[in-house]
Every structure is written in structure tokens, then in C-alpha cells.
Amino acid sequence: MAATKAKKGPTQPSSEKMSKAVLLYSIVLALQYGAQPLISKRFIRREVIVTTMVLTCEVAKVILVLYDNFVICAVIIMAKEGTLKKVFKKWTLIESLTASGLPAVIYALQNSLLQISYKNLDSLTFSMLNQTKIFFTAFFTYIILRQKQSMQQIGALFLLIMAAVLLSIGEGSSKGSASSNPEQILFYGIVPVLVASVLSGLASALCQWASQVKKHSSYLMTIEMSIVGSLCLLSSTLKSPDGEAIRQHGFFYAWTPLTLIPILANALGGILVGLVTSHAGGVRKGFVIVSALLVTAILQFLFEGKPPSLYCLVAFPLVVSSISIYQKYPYRVRKKDE
User: Fold this and answer.
1) 232-284 pLDDT per residue, tens
2) Residue 257 has what DSSP assignment?
3) Is 295 helix (H, G, I), strand (E, B) or coil?
4) C-alpha dihedral, 102 to 104 to 105 to 106, nearest 10°
5) CA distance 142 to 54
6) Which residues lie closer than 8 Å to 196 by C-beta, 6 or more apart?
7) How high is the pLDDT of residue 198?
8) What SS3 class is residue 9?
9) Residue 330, pLDDT score
């Protein structure tokens, strides 16, 4: 009995520390996720070249990840496990581009579209439309991996689509939009964020396919995607309008010191998502997203003096209910099917 008590003593404080750390990560992530659209609109001037923003954000992510010793630890762990030599012996350019290159290119394009959408949508509408990536992730994981959804999850996805349609019709119309140019909101705000959601769902499914089916090392995939994503963005500047603008005006055209704030916040958010998901699971992440939507609505009203539109007020409970139901009722394989 005494030995049992001695064993329980050290584990309880460590579990309490972990729960406190997860709570802290969740709060910071909710604040970052909710504030990101507002600080991006406030601190990034419209003249800033989109590619420079995305590329700098990717570099910032790599620096923060290296600072957190994630990539370095990945290489060390692989070397200790004896898998480093095996990985490089089996490594081929085609397999690497299929497993990591394609998702990296898709994510780079997605981030560029999100930067465009930030500038042309109000923060709450953007945040809610951005959640449609849940639907497209479910769609592509079923197409590529045949990963099924529960009936509750299917119902939640339909709620999400209803909210997206409602917001698209409402915010894209002259009556529902507070802007004098509803076409700009539709084609430079709503369309980019919806296309970015499609790309996000496809990239997520491809990463899951590479990890589960191709058995591609997750550590190696992290390194490959960091390299390929940056190279893709650099190569796109050779003939793109953004590349011409960079050559004409310079890389940091229209930047201010405050421009670094949303870049670093976005990079930090990427790391926090990984920490929350790995330590607390997808359910906690779902609650963080719901909390972030509330944060966005409150901050938008406080700092921009802009209350949510009628369409946002109707769509908001649909999005919150959809996320909550989807995370709470995952698909479970029946015993007779096992």
C-alpha cells in the first residue's frame, strides 16, 4: 500500500502540470485564432505584396519550429531509431514530391488566397467561412482514404454548408453587404476563402494518405514540406505579377514594423495547433475554434465598432453547432464490422 501511494505521488503533479499547460495553450490559441483576421487587416497595408507575406510567414514558421527544436529533434530521433539510413535509402524524388511536395504547394497557394481574403471580408465572416475546410477535409478523406463519417457528423457538415451558403448570399449581395462594392467582397473575399478551404481539405487528406498509406515518415515530411513550400513561393516570383512587383518596388514594399505582428502570430498559431491537438486531441481543438469565433465577434465590435450583420447572427449558431457536433460524435467502427 505504501509503495502504491509513493507511485501515485509524482504522477499526479505531472498530470496537473500537463493539464494546466494544455489549458494555457488552448486559451492562447483561441485568442490568436480569433484575433488573427483583425490584426491582419489592421497591420497589413493593402499595398503589401501577397507573396512576400506568405513567404515570410513560412520562414517565420521554420525559425520558430527550429527554435522549438522540433526539426532538429526529428533528425536526432530518426538517427537513434536507426531509421535515418533506411529513409534515405528508400527516398526518391518522385515519392517525396508526391507525399510532401504536392501538399506543400497546395498549402502555399491556400495561404496566398487567405491573405487576399483577409483584406476584403469582415473578420467574423472570414472566420466562419474558413471553417468550411472541415467539410472539404471530410470529403477528400472519404474520396482518397474511404474514411467514413458518423450520421451526426454528416448532419454537422450540412449545417456548415448551410451557414456558408447563407453568408455567401448575404455578404455578397448589395443589401447584405455594408460595403459599396459587393462584387469585390464576393470575388476577392468570399471566393478566395472558399477555394482556400477546398485546398486545405485536399492537402490535409493528402498528408494523411502519405502518412497512413505510403508510410512516409512524419518527421521527414515536416522537413520536406518546409523546404518545398519555400522553394515553390520563390519560384513563383519569376513570372508572376507579384514577382514583377517585387523586382520593381522591392521585397518589403509597403511594409511597416507592425507588419511583423500578424506574421509572427500566424506562425505561433501553427505551433499551438500542433501542441493542442497532440496533448488534448481534436475535441479540445474544436472547442478552441468555437471560442475563437466568439473572440473574433467581440474584438470586431470593440475595435472596429462593427456589430455582426444579420446574416452573421443567423449563421453563427449554425457554425458553432456544426463544429461542436462534428468533434463530439466521431465515426466508430461497429464490432461486427471489425
Assistant:
1) 888 888 888 999 999 999 999 999 999 999 988 987 887 777 667 656 555 56
2) G
3) helix
4) 80
5) 30
6) 110, 111, 113, 114, 117, 130, 133
7) 94
8) helix
9) 84
